[in-house]
Amino acid sequence: MTTSPSSAKIKMLLIDDEKDITDIVKMDLEANWGYLVTTADSGKEGIEQALKNDFDLVVTDFSMPDIDGEIVLDAIKQAKPKLPVLIFSIYHDDDSTIRDSIRKKAAAIVAKPIDYEKLHETIAKILGK
User: Fold this and answer.
1) Contact status, residue 65 vs residue 33, Cβ threshold 8 Å
2) Spatial separation of the C-alpha atoms in residues 86 and 83, rounded to whole Å
3) Ramachandran angles phi, psi of 100, nearest 5°
4) What is the mean predicted confidence (pLDDT) over 76-97?
5) pLDDT for residue 11 is more than 70
6) Is the pLDDT of residue 99 over 90?
7) Of 3.40.50.2300, 3.40.605.10, 3.40.50.720, 1.10.340.30, which CATH number belongs to 5-126?
8) What global pTM score does this model have?
9) Paired residues of 59 in beta bridges
């Protein structure tokens, strides 16, 4: 894969409590797509990072032990309503967990385990690339 020059300046925040996942996803997004990725290992840290820094996109896990993805989504959208938030989750098709209110606020929801091509396509669509 080649790095897209148009994506080279895209800054994103990746939030997941599973360090192995953040490391792998970050490596893929930076090496294969040229994005600049900052990571946070908890929902609380992710909210703090999102509010004090400028990002083009936030990608967050839905199920985390400290603060779940819905709270992360709500906090970010309240402070920065135009900042798109993508959620990835094993519950992506469970309407009792991922309610319509969450679907309406999130820029997209991507299934875990992560299909990296699908993730990139979704990110590109969100960012209009």
Assistant:
1) no
2) 10
3) -55, -35
4) 77
5) yes
6) no
7) 3.40.50.2300
8) 0.85
9) 14, 86
